[in-house]
Amino acid sequence: MSIREELEEMEYQTLSPYASFSRETRGRDRKESLCDIRPEYQRDRDRIIHCKSFRRLKHKTQVFLAPEGDHYRTRLTHTLEVSQIARTIAKSLKLNESLTEAIALSHDLGHTPFGHSGEYILDQISEKGFSHYKQSVRVVEVLEKNGKGLNLTWEVRDGILNHRTSGHPSTLEGAIVRYSDKIAYINHDIDDAIRARIFEEKDLPKEYTQVLGGNVRDRLNNMIHDIINSSCGRPEIVMSPDMEAAMQGLRKWMFANVYSGSVAKAEEKKAQQLVEMLYHYYMDHEDKLPEEYLRMKAERGETKDRVVCDYIAGMTDHYAIAMFEELFVPKSWKPL
């Protein structure tokens, strides 16, 4: 018996009957030989960590555009915090930790530069619209490895697609990531907003903090414990009604006071104009796209709009700014 087979047997002995067992995966689009060491979801996790899109997350905005300071979250640190929260919940509920981690680490791979600001403007100007959760699936199915994709299991891709608020993951592990994403960004965005002096802890509505907790540490602890206690021994991932109502209330408060119109979002319009100008430039100058995108357009029959969105969505904040400067900012010169 191989190490992989021993680990698969151990899952049956130790995990909840509601867990997603590695041996029972619906598989990959392209059939592959099994690894002798790693179960399938662990292989997916490893592929995600080593892919280029994952590395680029460190230079993509989470919420605050171009902050001065080293301690504000990026899309990568957000992803790692989601993963840590999700793994804690999955392990406590005896669900598949490797599947949970794979979904968590890949759920935002398709995010644009400049966070949701970039996503919003691409959705407005693209011929068929744009959403980061669909783009994240496209990244792992098509864009990585020069058009071959990562060939991940169906369960991981389902979790990526359904991590959004309106999503309905097919696995409990995917449902854990869906909750963990909200728990992470609500709490770390509060932490970043306090650091940016947008508000103080005492300014948060008491009707929510009395339920959730009076600081970031307590809120994380209470929300995570609530999901574990409410979901233990059940075939679903849930929060208690009071805790979920308070979480959703605080989320709406954050949208009104941080995500829209705050001083930390002052550069948002400039970022959106930058993305829009890049989009129209490449739509008008298709030949300036990198060769891999032109090849994909020819070989897969993709539309110009689709590959332009692929290229721009894959940019980091720094790269998008650099391309804008190269294309639109006059350069100094001197006589020969």
Q: What key phrases describe this protein's structure?
A:
336 residues; mainly alpha; Hypothetical protein af1432; 16 helices; 61% helix; flat
Q: How would you describe this protein?
A:
- This protein is mostly helical.
- It has a single domain (3-17, 34-267), classed as Hypothetical protein af1432, CATH 1.10.3210.10.
- 61% of the residues lie in helices and 0% in strands.
- It contains 16 helices and no strands.
- Helix 4 (75-92) packs antiparallel against helix 5 (97-106), helix 6 packs across helix 13 (268-284) and helix 13 packs across helix 15 (304-313).
- It is flat and about 75 Å long.
Query: What's the total count of β strands?
Result: 0
The chain-level mean pLDDT equals 94
Main sheet properties: none
- Assign the CATH superfamily: Hypothetical protein af1432
CATH class: Mainly Alpha
Query: Uncertain runs with pLDDT below 50, 5 residues or more?
Result: none
Total number of helical segments? Answer: 16
Strand content: under 5%
